[in-house]
Amino acid sequence: MKYLICNLKANKKKDELIKYEKELSSINKSSNIELIVCPSTPFLFLFQNENYELGSQDLSKFNEGPYTGENTAEQLSSLNVRYALIGHSERRIYFHEEEETIIEKIKRAYHSHIRPIYFIGETKEEKNNNQTYKTLEKQIAHIINEVPDYKREKMILVYEPVWAIGTGEVPNYDEMSETIMFIKKIVNAYYGLSLPVLYGGSVNETNIEKLSSIQEIDGLILGESSKNVQIIQDIYNIYQKNI
Ligand code: PGA
Questions:
Q1: Residue 4: its pLDDT value, please?
Q2: CA distances (Å), origin 197, targets 3, 12, 52, 183
Q3: Is 160 in the active site?
Q4: Is this model's pTM higher than 0.85 or not?
Q5: Which long-range contacts (CB under 8 A, 24 or more apart) does 90-98 make?
Q6: What pLDDT, in 10s, does the model give residues 109-168?
Q7: How confident is the model over 174-203, as a mean pLDDT?
Q8: Domains of the chain, CATH where assigned
Q9: Ligand 1 atom 2 nearest Cα
Q10: What separation in Å is there between the alpha carbon of 75 and the centre of ligand 1?
Q11: Torsion 38-139-92-76 (CA) sign
Q12: Cα 8 to averaged position of ligand 1 atoms, centre (Å)
């Protein structure tokens, strides 16, 4: 099974999303690529079609209670959310999300039967200093250690270099394939797990042909490219053809 995840971020208003959802509901799909859409939280209720799975872009580290402005995993689950993006670098950078918080969120997700999609990736500086593997290893070890053994296998990892998000830059393809294999190798060596590892960062119609031919990648995340359903369809078709 491969994954194609649409991270709409804080884009689009109600009317635009009603139209978007209608188009997404009639996208042509196959059974071997799971399509997951992650709209902004207030609009999750508009996305209730069986043609795709629903994901949230975040969730609260708290359970229900006096936490103004928060959306709990239980609430999201009641809106049919089955996946949640957790630890995206935009959350780490703009909302100062630390690993302790990320761990709480992952636990909340599991508790409400939501599959966590956990993001890892190096900054440009770390890359330039040859710290990529060290960074990834640290980001993985801290998190997985905290997740109870029996739940670990439901986790999905995303390798998303911070410098590749929204920049049009992607890692060199050989390097990308080696990095994905490195992630799989350490997850297996440390935890005896084989988790899906996805790639994200500037995936578009131009690089999809090449990206989809890298067999080690178990799925892709679209940010900017997810704003247009026709582009999603085009990317989906090429992905489908190449796997
Ligand atoms: P991008 O974003 O495709 O616009 O680079 C991807 C992401 O942040 O998940």
A1: 98
A2: 10, 28, 20, 8
A3: yes
A4: yes
A5: 90/9, 90/165, 91/58, 93/162
A6: 999 999 999 999 999 999 999 999 999 999 998 788 888 877 888 999 999 999 999 999
A7: 95
A8: 2-242 (3.20.20.70)
A9: 223
A10: 26
A11: positive
A12: 9
In the structure, what pLDDT confidence band is assigned to residue 242 with cuts at 50, 70 and 90? very high
Nearest by Cα to 32 from 69, 1, 65, 76: 1
Query: Per residue in 196-228, pLDDT tens?
Result: 999 999 999 999 999 999 999 999 999 999 999
Express each pLDDT in 9-60 by its tens digit: 999 999 999 999 999 999 999 889 999 999 999 999 999 999 999 999 999 9
Measured in Å, residue 225 CA sits from the centre of ligand 1 at 8
pLDDT tens track for 59-113: 999 999 999 999 999 999 999 999 999 999 999 999 999 999 999 999 999 999 9
Task: Please give the full DSSP string across the chain, using - where no structure is assigned.
Answer: -EEEEEE-TT---HHHHHHHHHHHHT----TTEEEEEE--GGGGGG---TTSEEEES---SS-SSS-TT---HHHHHHTT--EEEES-HHHHHHS---HHHHHHHHHHHHHTT-EEEEEE---HHHHHTT-HHHHHHHHHHHHHHHS-HHHHTT-EEEE--GGGTTTS----HHHHHHHHHHHHHHHHHHHS----EEEESS--TTTHHHHHT-TT--EEEESGGGG-HHHHHHHHHHHHHH-
Catalytic residue among 21, 88, 97, 122: 88
